[in-house]
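Structure representation.

___
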Amino acid sequence: MFSKSCEYGLRAIIYIAQQTEHNNKVSLTTISEAIDSPQAFTAKILQQLTKNNVVTSIKGPYGGFVIENDKMKTVTLSEVVKILDGDSIYTGCGLGLSQCNEANPCPLHFKFIAIREQLKEMLENTSLEMLVTDMSTQNFCLKR
């Protein structure tokens, strides 16, 4: 459903949010190891998230990645998905067909509309802060 970069991006942002909650800055190496992602790939994803002001990159020996407190409350998973994958998840064919539309639907077209709407609602209504709060009561693993 999501591209690989979006999957890694979501895992990275959740990991950074968890660490930020404990007042920790995290390095690229630590993030890529924690989410089981190639370091160069993770760097490109974090560069996009930094450029779009979702995460903050602090340079220097005591630097790392963090998420500002106001961003924790306001950034939703939908924003992260849009930065990394665009809005194709909300508009594209469930089977990946280029010619699928209302006039020429694929076999899953009308069933996928409801799923897509539920996914959109969940992504738009889930902030980083909500995830971190939910995760603090459970034990999650961000590796595959």
Remarks:
- Strands lie at 56-58, 64-66.
- The mean pLDDT is 89.
- The chain has one domain: 4-136.
